[in-house]
Amino acid sequence: MAVDHLISIHDLHASEVERLLDLATSLKSDPRRYRTALEGQSLAMIFQKSSTRTRVSFEVGMWQLGGSALFLSSRDIQLGRGEPISDTARVLSRYVDGIMARTYLHQDVLDLAGYASVPVINGLTDDLHPCQALADYFTLREIFGELWGRKIAYVGDGNNMAHSLMLGAPKVGMSIAVASPGKYQVQDRYLELARRDASAAGTEVLVTDDPAEAVADASAVYTDVWASMGQEEEAAARETAFAGFTVDESLMAHALPEAVFLHCLPAHRGEEVSAAVADGPQSRIYDEAENRLHVQKAIMVQLMGG
Questions:
Q1: Within this chain, do residues 107 and 171 fall inside the same structural domain, yes or no?
Q2: Is residue 150 flagged as an active site residue?
Q3: Which of 71, 114, 126, 155 is the residue whose CA sits 20 to 30 A from 92?
Q4: pLDDT digit string (tens) for 126-149?
Q5: Running DSSP on this structure, what letter comes out for residue 5?
Q6: Catalytic residue check, 264
Q7: Selected catalytic residue, list 48, 131, 264, 302
Q8: Which of 292, 294, 296, 302 is labelled catalytic?
């Protein structure tokens, strides 16, 4: 890739996204071919936010590529005790070949990338979740083949997933519609970036407060939890605000007949999605969870394998 880090899908050209997804396809279909791709290399994994899928997929991915991964929680490193990010980035760069960070503040990942001399991968921030979105579009490409001209609908909180899906859609030729209640809509700065890229790509970005409008004629319907990690105190207020935004069978009926349902997990059945949809025939939630492994392996090979 032309960039040295993976912070946002917006930083990638459409051709780079295509090559990355092509590599993920190769890694998934023939993993033995790449079992020494990162032999002897190590990845530092900084976790300010806990995670099942992010930790396991990166750790297993490095092992499958011949390298090793080191889990670092806020309790394990001095970053959690006030050490400047600049010092952490510079010191880790002397020990490891790459850094993956899952943080609250987006600026923390930007600062890590600014001071590190090894590739930095954004494992999630409050603003963006690029690895998940790339895995989602990889999953859709497996299902539908050519994605150009198709539409993905996101229903729910205008959070890091909504932002990354918006930024990724133009890169794969898809239009996107995002439905959220008024004060929970996507941030203007990411909407502007997505619309700029969509205009260049010939696709569309719609933001609405009407879930049915968003889902109409969509090939994929996506949702996420209404209260993300760190927002637990807002859960009751958010549950009230998101009334009518549950992805259920009646809402899925507005999408195309072949539409699939996606969710980055963990899912709260009976809240943002009904059990009938999450566990129904249109659901591809476990496929996309698996594909985190293959796409992140592709990211690591691209950034660290050169």
A1: no
A2: no
A3: 126
A4: 999 999 999 999 999 999 999 999
A5: S
A6: yes
A7: 264
A8: 292
Q: Based on the structure, what is the number of domains in the chain?
A: 2
Determine, yes or no, domain membership for 1.
Answer: no
Which two tokens mark 65? 């590529």
Domain that holds residue 172: 132-288
Residues 256 and 136 grouped into a single domain = yes
Same domain, 105 and 163: no
Concerning whether 292 is annotated as a catalytic residue, the answer is: yes
The yes-or-no answer on residue 231 being catalytic is no
Give yes or no: residues 153 and 266 share one domain.
Answer: yes
List, for residues 187-220, the tens digit of each pLDDT value: 999 999 999 999 999 999 999 999 999 999 999 9
pLDDT tens sequence across 257-285 = 999 999 999 999 999 999 999 999 999 99
Q: Which of 97, 108, 157, 224 is catalytic?
A: 224
Please tell me which residue in 102, 106, 238, 294 is annotated as part of the active site. 102
> Which residue is catalytic, options 55, 129, 238, 284?
129
- For residue 260, tell me if it sits in a domain: yes
Nearest to 112 by CA among 21, 198, 45, 65: 45
Q: Are residues 138 and 272 in the same domain?
A: yes
- 139 with 284, same domain? yes
Active site residue 35: no
Confidence of residue 78 (pLDDT cuts 50, 70, 90): low
**What amino acid occupies position 107?**
Q
Would residue 248 count as lying in a domain? yes
Q: Please tell me which residue in 41, 48, 64, 132 is annotated as part of the active site.
A: 132
Other Cβ atoms closer than 10 A to 210: 13
CA distances from 105 to 27, 118, 241 (A): 31, 20, 25
In terms of domains, do 211 and 264 share one? yes
Quick check: is 129 catalytic?
yes
Q: What single-letter amino acid sits at 16?
A: E
Q: Are residues 136 and 180 in the same domain?
A: yes
